[in-house]
Specification:
The chain is α+β, with helices and mostly antiparallel strands. The protein has 4 helices and 5 strands.
């Protein structure tokens, strides 16, 4: 029988990763303007996300603009959008599956073996969701680093990693670790079955008298 405590720990970590993935997707600070180099104007800071861009003035005023056209966006942004949304969708499905499969819930309580298999399935889905989020954030971060070190990129057009990337990386790791706990906690083949012993021969044989 699966350990309910380990299952609950894995589900909690994966759920935190699910929340972090949502936060990372909606955040605008996927990349922030870089202040490395000489003659950099720091009167304003630019941030770009998956859905809009923002400019923060030194006076504290922030102006944001939503992307006008989906087809005009770079393939990196479109691909990262799809990966993050797919990760969130799979995590949500896995949460619904785990509600049935967790040992601390009453669903399918009369079928412990099937319940543990459902929990295992949810753990696998969590791992897939975490990998999708990890691929999306790493791909976006790789392009930022590639453009930053490109000598043909103007100094004023260079960007660095934003806070949304770090949130996304942390969320992906939590989701994968949580799913791993749920998978490693799968029951053995003999779970839920009582051991069988051969019948005793003393009851079937009549008593013998010894001199």
């Amino acid at each position: 029988m699966a350990n309910a405590g380990i299952q609950l720990l894995g589900f909690t970590l994966a759920f935190l990763g699910f929340v972090g993935s949502i936060a990372s997707t909606v955040m605008v600070e996927w990349k922030a303007s870089s202040y490395a180099g000489d003659n950099i104007i720091t009167a304003q800071a630019m941030y770009e996300g998956l859905w809009k861009t923002c400019v923060s003035q030194s006076t504290g005023q922030i102006q944001c603009k939503v992307y006008d056209s989906l087809l005009q966006l770079p393939g990196m942004v479109q691909g990262t959008r799809g990966l993050m949304l797919s990760s969130i969708l799979l995590s949500f499905i896995s949460i619904l599956v785990e509600v049935v499969g967790l040992r601390c819930t009453t669903c399918m309580a009369d079928q412990p073996e099937q319940k543990d298999k459902v929990a295992l399935t949810g753990g696998v889905i969590f791992i897939i969701a975490g990998l999708l989020a990890l691929v999306g954030t790493s791909w976006y971060g790789h392009r930022i680093a590639q453009d930053f070190y490109n000598p043909f990129t103007p100094t004023n057009s260079r960007f660095e990693f934003g806070s949304a990337l770090y949130v996304g990386w942390g969320a992906a790791c939590l989701t994968i670790i949580g799913g791993g706990f749920l998978c490693c906690n799968c029951p053995g083949k003999s779970s839920g079955k009582s051991p069988r012993y051969p019948p005793s021969h003393s009851a079937s044989q009549p008593g013998r008298d010894y001199v």
